[in-house]
Design a protein that fits this description.
This protein is α/β, with parallel strands linked by helices. The protein is built from eight helices and twelve strands. Helix 8 links the parallel strand 11 and strand 12. The protein is globular, with a radius of gyration of 17 Å. Bound molecules: iron/sulfur cluster (SF4).
């Protein structure tokens, strides 16, 4: 595996790696301390707002291939945290993801995860790992919209049931590290009725909400900055903890949904 190119914007650095079989995956250094790594070549979930899963899944990365993304970069950029949020659904490659997690921990790194939540048996295990943050993508609490936005992810009812069962027994400190993500897309899931349902779920579970900005990677329309702020203020009225997409995550280079499998 080797680093074949580095792309830079004002905010992010994006690194393209070529694997031994010729496939290419990406990692992003952002926020001045965090490396977002990939866990698969492609992704079977195929969320329509994300470029990473456009061609489906090619193969899983090995734990070594996940770890080496960090190892090849650690002398170039000051990595303190790992975000397992690049190309791929981590739970669909769980054994390798967990093995790489322990390697990162050995290096003294803080590790956070982003997942659509399936398979559930691994979600249960992931919740209990000593991670530094776990964000579960919901994007809608309506079955039809969830299916549209996370087409090959967990069925919604089963996911919510698993979250209810697992989160209920966690300590307050552990709950604070868990968040449900909601990517806002104009005319699809941005009505106040939709957000009301989402806020009630977040509130019931006692976790945080991550309100993600859509980076216009596909045919959907993003909200304006003003609309995005309004939705944020609406959710805040429920007394829940709400995080917005940082400017790093809104960057067209390396922001959410912008990583490409086998970039040319
Ligand atoms: S958002 Fe995540 S789960 Fe969905 S297609 Fe992209 S990499 Fe896969």
């Amino acid at each position: 595996m080797r680093l074949i190119s580095t792309l830079k914007s004002e905010l992010n650095k994006l690194f393209v790696f070529e694997l031994k079989d010729g496939n290419r995956v990406e990692a992003v250094f952002y926020r001045g301390d965090t490396l977002c790594v990939s866990t698969q070549v492609g992704c079977a979930v195929k969320c329509p707002f994300c470029l990473s899963g456009k061609e489906g899944l090619v193969r899983n990365l090995t734990s070594e291939e996940i770890y080496v993304q960090y190892d090849l970069l650690k002398d170039r950029v000051p990595v303190k945290r790992i975000a397992v949020a690049g190309i791929g659904e981590p739970l669909m490659n769980y054994s390798h993801v967990v093995a790489s997690f322990w390697k990162f921990k050995k290096e003294g790194l803080k590790v956070s995860f982003y997942t659509t939540g399936f398979p559930h048996r691994y979600l249960k295990e992931l919740i209990r790992l000593p991670h530094n943050g776990l964000t579960v993508s919901i994007h809608s609490t309506r079955k039809d919209k969830r299916k549209l936005l996370v087409p090959h992810g967990s069925p919604l009812d089963a996911l919510i049931k698993t979250l209810r069962e697992e989160i209920a027994s966690l300590s307050k400190t552990k709950k604070k590290k868990i968040s449900l993500a909601y990517l806002l897309i104009k005319g699809i899931n941005d009505s106040y009725e939709d957000l009301d349902d989402f806020a009630k779920l977040v509130s019931e579970l006692g976790v945080g909400a991550t309100l993600l900005y859509y980076n216009a990677t596909g045919s959907f329309e993003p909200l304006s900055k003003k609309e995005y702020e309004e939705k944020f203020l609406f959710l805040r009225r429920y007394g829940i903890r709400v995080t917005l997409s940082t400017r790093f995550r809104r960057d067209p280079l390396g922001g959410c949904g912008t990583l490409i499998t086998n970039r040319n």
